[in-house]
Amino acid sequence: MTSPVLPSWREGPARTAILRFVAEVTTPDGDHYLEPPDRIAVFDNDGTLWPERPMPVQLHFLTERWREMAAADPSLADRQPYASAVSGDPTWIASVVDDHYAGDDTRVPALAEAIMATQQDMDTDTLAERVAEFFANARHPVLKRPYPACAYQPMLELLGFLRESGFTTAIVSGGGRDFMRVVSADMYGVPPELVIGSTAETSWSSSREAVVYGASIGVLDDGPQKPVLIWDRLGRRPVLACGNSNGDIEMLTHAAAAPRGLALLVRHDDDTRDDPPYDGGAERALAEAGRRGWVTVSVRDDWSCLYPDAT
Amino acid sequence: MTSPVLPSWREGPARTAILRFVAEVTTPDGDHYLEPPDRIAVFDNDGTLWPERPMPVQLHFLTERWREMAAADPSLADRQPYASAVSGDPTWIASVVDDHYAGDDTRVPALAEAIMATQQDMDTDTLAERVAEFFANARHPVLKRPYPACAYQPMLELLGFLRESGFTTAIVSGGGRDFMRVVSADMYGVPPELVIGSTAETSWSSSREAVVYGASIGVLDDGPQKPVLIWDRLGRRPVLACGNSNGDIEMLTHAAAAPRGLALLVRHDDDTRDDPPYDGGAERALAEAGRRGWVTVSVRDDWSCLYPDAT
């Protein structure tokens, strides 16, 4: 018998915990009933809603920008990350990300500066157009399909099931907010105002009558900053949080501390399908999950398929 | 004949401009048609959706907090604004606000410090409870009714009409965001995530597993900061903006610059009813409205009533 909800979730503790949670908070005479405005669910993006390996999607976009910038200004071509982008060899960039997962952020400032440079002085409408162009054309290097078709199918089902159950679903990611917002409504059914992420500083240009990106980071939406930004943007406490890495610990803790909170931690443990296994960057989160009784979602055991059917 | 929409708006240029605008952006084959996700309308709050005289509503709330704090710590009672709160004479506080409207912010830092002190180290849930208590009990000093019954009736009709026409309506106010959010859904039909305002700095407390207010201002949502925060929170450009003071100029400019943008400026020019006439703090905005062709909303001429029927 096929279940009508969460069809790509196998029977098991994760699926059971989700169904029980939703039943409890939506049963009007139950102890844990929540009015719909209090049904807030937050999701990390990279590694939670879509894959972050072999490299975060946004890094693919940025690499294309760095290549264009180095073509326009050859003096950049010897510097990283531009050299890496020009050569088509992502080793340097990938190693910065790996170092970051391992706790070494030595080269992050150089990368951050180059990220800011891709959009500095650009107005917000123009960046959104470029991002839309990227999503229309780029392909995931392994899956060979457009990124908007690379969401994890079980997560699309979970987002939809929660919304049908009266939840507000929001994205809370370390990734760039203005990058994700361009596709969040079509991909995930999450409108721009419910996408929270890292930002560049912006200011009002009275001469251009537009909002324009500056040279510095506005906010890095990671770790303890996640619950702060959730309050900042939503004004409510989440009762369900779902993440996959150390940067999600505080957000998961905050949701789990709600009277009937549910914390879900996705574990990439599947060596048989198109989602490489890794625990790098999730070691502390996995330990916390064990200690605090968070629900672990095993990609291998809990998900019967990974991606939407190719179109 | 009573019109089915905007019944408290008298026939006149403001009402006509609003109806024409909504018709144009919602007519599918028209030149200015907008898909619903692009129908974004933003509203200032103090002096636009509810009265800001004799003093901003939030200042009433703060005065009660200062009185409590001075009672608990008598050393405060000789200092302003505490002394003013204890004596029940709002002259000092009102004069700081008047000076601000006149461009003199000399005493604003002392006021800001005292504002921050009312909530410092408090977690966000606790502040929300105190604000809810205030709204349940306080009365507007002139209107003698609870503040949630003090919204301008024509504005409630406009918010509702816009939402029925597929718009997302948001509040963008210099007032405290976490103060407004407590009543915005019930008063205005605007959920917390669509309330943008001034904030205190907040941080995550791992020991309390809560988001906690700090001692400094996070962001002052006024002037050029308004379009920046609209982008920051909504990720879309407004096509309708409505304000009443100099602090709304950039927000109005941004909306008016959209292909079929509409900027509405409320003018408090009624000396016959319960809304005192004043142009203080709106001089530049009124000049811009004339120069740029924004639509002025006259409280005297355009609104047939001011407040919802008393219950």
UniProtKB/TrEMBL annotation, chains A, B:
InterPro entries: HAD-like_SerB, HAD-like_sf, HAD_sf. GO terms for biological process: L-serine biosynthetic process. Its EC number is 3.1.3.3. The lineage of its organism: Bacteria, Bacillati, Actinomycetota, Actinomycetes, Kitasatosporales. GO terms for cellular component: cytoplasm. Keywords: Amino-acid biosynthesis, Hydrolase, Magnesium, Metal-binding, Serine biosynthesis. It is an enzyme of class 3 (hydrolase). GO terms for molecular function: L-phosphoserine phosphatase activity; magnesium ion binding. It holds the Pfam family HAD. This is phosphoserine phosphatase. It catalyses: O-phospho-L-serine + H2O = L-serine + phosphate; O-phospho-D-serine + H2O = D-serine + phosphate. Belongs to the HAD-like hydrolase superfamily. SerB family.
